[in-house]
Each structure stands twice: as structure tokens, then as C-alpha cells.
Amino acid sequence: MPSFDVVSELTWPEVVNAVDQANREISTRFDFKGSDARVELKDKQLTVFADDEFKIGQARDILTLKLAKRGVDLVCLDAQAVEIIGGNKAKQVLKMRHGIDQELAKKIVKLIKDAKLKVQAAIQGESVRVTGKQRDDLQTAIALLRKQSFDRPLQYNNFRD
Q: How do beta strands 119-124 and 127-132 pair?
């Protein structure tokens, strides 16, 4: 029976490379001269450090540009509030949303069922498996999901005939 999986995955090597490139550019830029501005990747979340909120915004812009050039969808970034830490320093945490949680999986299954397509959707861990009798029905389901906007990028893989 034909099927495919709906997943939300990030290419972590590309994220690491984008962080390295952003740190390299921040260290060479004149407007960051003498400041301790940097981007750290730890526990699957990014932290931007700088002297003040304005420089955090500039460093975040450099980071998002590097992530976009590397093909990482910026929808997965969840920016938290800027925190002032001691010594005239500030930081901002950018959480990376990846994987399909139960709430999003239920929303995807409900959307497919409400469309009354001839396919079945089942939640399997951090993915949703969609099966149907015909390939065209599966392609219609993919088109339906692509029209919707979710809070994270979706990929459709493991397509089997």
C-alpha cells in the first residue's frame, strides 16, 4: 500500500556551519570591535550574546542570514525575550523547533480527515504516516499540507509505492 511520512527535521550539520560562519563574521566586523558578541549552539538551542539589545539584533540578523543561505528554514526559530545579564551584557535564546509533537500531529491528522481524502493518517512517534490505495491520493494529501502554515517546516519523505 503506498505511503509517506510527514516529518519536521533540521539538518544539524548545516546549523553548526551557519553558527560557525556567523561567529566568524561577527568577530571580523568593525561595529563589533571590542565587544564579546557571539552565538553559541548548546542543547539544540542557539544563544546570542552581545553588549546590548541593539547588538543582539545585529548578531541575530547575521545568524538568520547564514541559516537561510545554508537552507535552514527560519520558521523553526523561536526567539525568546532579550535578557540583561551582569556587566553590561545581554543574551537572547533562540529555540530550534524540530520534530512533530503530539499537538501538531493531531492537527495534521484532523486536517487530513476533514478533507475527506481517501487516505489514512496515523501518528508514529515524531512523524505522521499517511497511507492510501492510490498514489494520486497521497499527492493530493501532500498538496493539502503544503497549503497550510504550521509553526515549523514539514518534509515529506519515505514515499513508497
A: antiparallel
